[in-house]
Structures are given as C-alpha cells and as structure tokens.
Amino acid sequence: MGDSILTYNGGCVLAMAGKNCVAIAADRRFGVQQTTIGTDTTRIFKINDRLMLGLTGLRTDVITLYHRFVQRLNLYRLREEREIKPASFSNMVASTLYSRRFAPYFVEPVVAGLTEKGEPYLCAQDLLGAPLFAQDFVVSGTCAESLYGTSETFWKPDLSPAELFEVTSQSLLAAVDRDCLSGWGAVVHIITLDGIETKFLKARMD
Amino acid sequence: MGDSDYSFSLTTFSPSGKLVQIEYALNAVAAGATSLGIRAKNGVVIATEKRMPSILMESHTLEKISFISETTGMVYSGMGPDSRVLLRKARKFAQSYYQTYKEPIPVVQLVRETAFVMQEFTQSGGVRPFGVSLLIAGCDEQGPHLYQVDPSGSFFAWKASAIGKNMVNAKTFLEKRYSDDMEIEDAIHTAILTLKEGFEGQITEHNIEIGQVTDNQKFKVLTPLEVKDYLGEVE
I need a labelling partner for A187 at 20 to 30 A (CA). Which of A127, A176, B59, B231 fits? Predict the structure, then answer.
C-alpha cells in the first residue's frame, strides 16, 4: 500500500486477439489505496469503430490523457479527413508519453483495434511509452502479473468472437479476484469489422 | 521573425485590395526558369530548366529538384535560396509527422503546412514573402498528387501545371497533351516536349532536371544518363 503511484487508484485492463476480432476488458474499481470509492469507472475509451484505448494507473492522469487524445484525434480527423490507423494511434500515444519523459503521466495504456484488413492489432506501453506489440494478448494494471498467468493459460489462436469473449472474461475475472485493488465489476468490449459489442460481467463485488 | 523594431508587417494592402508585395513575389517567380509537373495514373513527374549563368559553373552541383521525404519531392521557380528555407521546413515537418505517427506523411498535409509557412511570411513583422512557387509531387495511400504552392500561401492540386518564365505557353501545351490515363513514361516524354517548347538553345541532359515518384517506388531524381536516354527517345 502506498508504494507506487501507479497502484494508488488500482484497476487493470486486458486485451486479447481472436480471428479477425479483438476483445478489450477492464474492471470497474476506483479506489484511494485500500478504500473503494467508485464501482462504475470507465477505463476503456472508444477511439473509433475499430479502435479502443484502455488506460490504467493514476485516475487523474487517465482522465487528462483521454481528453488530450480526443483533442488530438478530432484535429487529426478534421485535417486528414479519415480515421487513424491503430499503429499510427499507438505511436502517437507513445510519443505523447515520452514527451513527458522527466515528469511522466502515470498511466500504462493498452491499444486494441483492427487494421483496415480486419487483422487484430494489440499494443501495451509503460508509462514512458515503451511499446510491446503482441499477437496474442496484452495486459496492464495492478494485477498484471496475474493477468499474464491466466491469459497464458486460457488463450489459444483463432478464437471466434464468442469464444474470445469467454476466454477474455474468465482470464480477467480469475486475475482480479486475487487482487484487492482491482475488481468491483467488469466490462468487456469485442471489436469486429461489424462494430463493437459491449458486455458487463457479473463479478464478485469485493 | 523580425526585430522588435519591425513588429509590423511589411506586406500591406493597397487601396484596390491587393497585397502588392505578393504580386511582386509572383513577378519574381515569373522571371525564374520554367518548371512543370505532370500527374500520371501511376506516379508524378516534375521537371525544370537549369539555367546556368555561365559555362564555367558546375551544373551538377545545382539541385533544383529535391527530396522532401522518401515519397515526396519538389521543384521551384524563382529564388533558389528562398526555396531552400522552405525545403528545410518541409523536411522537418515530414520527419516530425513520421516520428509521431510512424506513417509517411500524406502529401496534402505536407503541402498544407508548407503553404501555412508561406502565408505566415505575408502577415508577420519585418519579413517579406517568399519569392518562389513550388511544385510538390508525391505518392501516398490516396494515390499520386501534384500540388502548386504560391508565395501567398495558396495551394492548388493539378493534373499538370507549369510555373516560371514560360508558364503560359507550357500550360497551353500541357492542356492539349494531357490525358487522364497517361502512364509515367508518357508523362516524362510529355514533360520533356513541354520544356523543349520554350527552351532557348539546345536541350541537353545537363541543362534540365527531371524527378519522378511512383506508387511503388521512392522519389528519385533521374541521373544525366537516364535523362539522355529519354531525350533520345523524344527526338
């Protein structure tokens, strides 16, 4: 408790790739160290119909950064008259984080989306913008280590959207249940070429 | 930009509503060597006359056609030194875009920024407008593009255009010769023929410069040998 600014508010995000689909999931807890003060927080934000951004870490920086990205994306959309690609957005996030190298934003983002061809794109970054690209899954948050464990166990390639939803939900719930700073509800978004489906999970409310 | 003594703009309106400094800048462009560009189905060609003031000058050290990024290039008519300032800014902008988005800059974004810089110099303290018009050529995801940017900061997309001394005749010639389904090879031949129209003296591979960019190839300036081959084909 109180050992790192990144664990102050708690929370986690998990994103997984399936066959022409991605799922991104998060818990809904907002706390001040051990005290839970919110159970309906949004940690995953829609960028466009094929791209979502999950942000864990210090809540105030999560909110500020989200607004900053909305501002930049709106300008991008107006200037370029097109939607941004997942890889370009991911790089934009990384350069934004690195621009504050010596006074960082205390967030660890997860970018999940589909390329124009419908291929999954996943990227997790640390608070300084160091990217990690994966073909299977990426995780972030206070129970990241547990999430790595559960995801590694349950994930397999070429999951259909329905299967992917199951795998993502089970991996997330199993991990957050062992973390006192995460939990209190969960949400899963499944992104396919047809759009985004959002489901709220029935989770242990503790 | 400008000393504190010159916080006012030197480009001011005339009673008829014109910005005379920009008109004069366009005159400087019109006095410069002819440059032209042609957008083909699969790429863009830009070409220019290289007028050497003396035979003692090393013609290969004068580069009128330059790279802005791997997929975009430009040519100018007017004052060479002014074009170098714009080239530097354009290159920097293209690189910073790549650093932010890891994507090669779309041509229109580059043109927009260059045009913005040129406009700034018509409304800032203690500076004069740039004495060049630029033809920016590039290929991006939307296809091949050819843009002209003027000293005022206005920019236009063209299928084919010419700037500089012989621009009126050149544009008339291009209007007759241009077709929408031109391939890059045809475009190069047409570019050479257009330059030939208003050329004073004998056209050789040392007194013209040609640059091209295609959908699947980077921007490149043709070597004198390559230019010589095309000149031979056109004869």
Answer: A127
